[in-house]
TrEMBL record:
Keyword Cytoplasm: no
InterPro entries: Benzoyl-CoA_Rdtase_bzd_osu (IPR017604), FldB/FldC_alpha/beta (IPR010327)
Family: Belongs to the FldB/FldC dehydratase alpha/beta subunit family.
Protein EC: 1.3.7.8
Pfam families tied to this protein: HGD-D
Name by which UniProt lists this protein: Benzoyl-CoA reductase, bzd-type, subunit O
GO molecular function list: benzoyl-CoA reductase activity
Keyword list, A-Z: Iron, Iron-sulfur, Metal-binding, Oxidoreductase
Length: 434
């Protein structure tokens, strides 16, 4: 393949892998050091448990299950165990993987499945509360659920914001009772600030991909945004995102490409089939780079429309003169920050997602869109065919392929590759000689 642009590996790649591994080992070994373990989703508002101390560790279910999904044999073993217990195969594949590992008492990173001290969970996806209700029942641990389904952020009112903020105050009372520890407001406020730093900065990093050539490709981005899904309110995550931003900004300045033969730019949607990420490398044989997706950008990225009308990372409150010095202020700003998350908006209306996808197509200079009809996630796939119609109506070529983020039995590699070949022909590109 003829290289059009210079390329080089990410300098922070090794550090990202080390931080991820350390996260999972810290959770497994927390009890050896007298620490606290809790479990919930990647969307759980983890700055709340952070107020219990500096030795509090979480296991966020979706990224854990995605890690398992890459190990096809263990993933199937977990899902078989969940199905043998009586759970239907068409439920969330992440949920089935987590449940199966818990029932097998096997942890993907070695040893027995670590038991959490409590569940702390948000509810916006159709599966979230039921997922951890079963965990709490089986593990015999206390549970707390935060309802954040108050409607799209564009329609936010003080009453809706108060509804979520008041639940966060209840959550603070819950984690104190569940852990037997006093809540430290200073640690909580610091965690809120860290989360805002992490999620705003990840959006800034994704915005750097608007340029040609793209400094990052989506397959690489999956291994970077995941740190925010693990522990976005931690200092180590916020600091890493700042480091990463500087490196990616430097790549842009020097014209360093993620895909050296970049010819066309694609966008995807929802979680990929984790056990078949090599499909992204296949795209590169056509000179195609996936610049990301609403999922990759906004699963954890927090965005806003800038003065020039383009999308960028949301401005941090203290950069607008708003100081966070007390619990009440922190709770309210924290609720508002999360309720603005782009990936929460389309649960209410697929048109909101279509509008965001069309914005990405325009600002990131996208030539074509690949939509994953993901049977493994009802929440992020809801309205996807309406999204397809909106993209097609805009004049942007779009293809669909069927699969499942966590269950390889739902993905046909040969058929998907054939659909990619046909789509590349539609886009007017040919496979490039090696």
């Amino acid at each position: 393949m003829a290289n059009l642009y210079p390329t080089e590996p990410l300098k922070l790649w090794k550090k990202a892998k080390e931080l991820r591994e350390q996260y999972y080992m810290n959770y497994a070994r927390a009890k050896e050091k007298g620490g606290i373990r809790w479990s919930g989703s990647a969307w759980a508002l983890d700055a709340i448990p952070a107020g219990l101390g500096e030795d509090v560790y979480s296991l966020t279910g979706e990224p854990y299950a995605a890690a398992v999904a890459h190990d096809r044999k263990f993933a199937k073993e977990c899902m078989d165990a969940a199905e043998a217990y009586g759970f239907a195969r068409d439920l969330c594949s992440y949920m089935r993987i987590y449940w199966g590992g818990m029932h097998l008492n096997k942890y993907a990173f070695g040893g027995e499945f670590p038991k959490p001290d409590f569940v702390f969970q948000t509810q916006i996806c159709c599966s979230h509360s039921k997922w951890y209700q079963h965990v709490a029942k089986e593990e015999k641990i206390p549970e707390f659920y935060l309802d954040v389904g108050v409607g799209p952020y564009k329609d936010m009112t003080d009453a809706r914001l108060d509804y979520v903020a008041n639940q966060l105050h209840d959550g603070i009372e819950f984690v104190q009772k569940a852990s037997g520890r006093e809540f430290n407001d200073e640690l909580f406020i610091e965690a809120v600030k860290n989360e805002m730093r992490s999620t705003s900065r990840w959006a800034d990093i994704c915005a750097l991909n608007k340029v040609k050539p793209a400094p990052l490709d989506e397959k690489t981005m999956y291994s970077l945004y995941v740190l925010c899904t693990l522990s976005k309110s931690s200092k180590w995550c916020a600091d890493f995102m700042d480091e990463l931003y500087e490196e990616v900004k430097d790549r842009v300045a020097r014209g360093i490409a993620a895909v050296p033969n970049e010819t066309i730019r694609l966008m995807t949607d929802t979680q990929p089939p984790w056990s078949f990420l090599k499909i992204f490398r296949y795209l590169e044989t056509y000179g195609a780079v996936s610049i990301g997706s609403l999922y990759t950008f906004a699963l954890e990225g927090i965005w806003e429309e800038k003065a020039d009308g383009t999308w960028g990372g949301r401005t941090l409150p203290w950069n607008k003169g708003v100081e966070i010095k007390d619990r009440a202020t922190a709770v309210r700003l924290y609720a508002d920050w999360n309720l603005s998350k782009p990936q929460w908006q389309h649960f209410y209306d697929p048109r909101l997602k279509s509008d965001m996808m069309l914005r990405i197509i325009k600002e990131w200079q996208v030539d074509g869109v690949m939509l994953h009809l993901n049977r493994g996630c009802e929440g992020l796939s809801v309205g996807i065919m309406e999204n397809r119609l909106a993209i097609a109506k805009s004049g942007t070529p779009v293809m669909t392929f069927e699969g499942n983020m966590g269950d390889e039995r739902e993905f046909d590699e040969v058929r998907t590759q054939a659909r990619v070949d046909a789509f590349m022909e539609q886009l007017g590109v040919r496979r490039q000689a090696a």
